[in-house]
Amino acid sequence: MEPEPLIPKHGGYRNLKSFQIGQLAYDLTVRFCDRYISKRSRTHDQMVQAARSGVQNIAEGSKASGTSKKMELKLTNVARASLEELRLDYEDFLRQRGMMLWSEEDPRRGELVRRRCRTVEEVAAWVAEIHGRNGHDGRNGLPTKEPSTSSIPSRKSTYPEIAANAALVLIGVACALLDRQIAAQAAAFTEEGGFTERLYRIRSQRHRRQCAASQFGPVPASTSIGTLPGKGNA
């Protein structure tokens, strides 16, 4: 069994699904705010900064985990809080403009999740597809055939409404992933402790190994056969 490392492997945040989805929500938010919210509005900067904070704190928490599980947990909680703030901003955008907030049962939510978009361009293409399916051409707004799927609401949604709801779906996925991440981090911190506890364990293990080695070390050169316990003199 290999000894426990003082600083375990850490910093692999790019492989975290929470980081990947959070980064996609950030890119989408930058695009959304540039198109639908005035750059002179304070809301524009607040939404972009909240989205950025979510991504940055996931990354910083992952990097900090090598020496401080407590800091990792704290930063991951900050990321979760930032995304919750961003979610409220999108909901406010829809409510204040009389636009529809998709319900939990709306089939478009599951459709976007199953699409597994990796780039903001892929999300934008899906938004255009839904816009066209709801009675508009996704490119120029010309009327098209009504959707054949009866489960999709017939209300003709606008681009910003669909885009805002798409962002909310991605934020919801990221928040759910972070909730699980936070629970796992809290459990690990409770069971294993942080850097101080790990340092104590490693020092204790090293001390036990040194004690065990000293018990079976070589006989000192100054000790003769005749003076060893249990032996008579020649």
Notes on the structure:
This protein is mainly α and 234 residues long. 64% of the residues lie in helices and 0% in strands. It has seven helices and no strands. Helix 1 packs antiparallel against helix 6. The longest helix is centred in the last third of the chain and has 34 residues.
By helix and strand content, what is the structural category? mainly alpha
Order of helices and strands: HHHHHHH
Contiguous helical run count:
7
Morphology: elongated
Q: How does the major sheet shape up?
A: none
Average pLDDT over all residues: 80
N-end to C-end Cα span = 46 Å
Overall radius of gyration: 29 Å
How many DSSP-defined strands? Answer: 0
In terms of DSSP E residues, the strand content is under 5%
Classify the helix fraction into a percent range: 55-70%
Pick out the low-confidence regions: 136-155, 223-228
Summarize this entry quickly.
This protein has 7 helices and no strands.
Secondary structure: elements and pairs:
Layout (H helix, E strand, L loop, with lengths): L16 H20 L5 H23 L4 H28 L10 H9 L4 H14 L25 H34 L2 H21 L19
Helix pairs in contact: 1-2, 1-6, 2-3, 3-6, 5-6
Q: Can you tag this structure with a few keywords?
A:
234 residues; mainly alpha; 0% strand
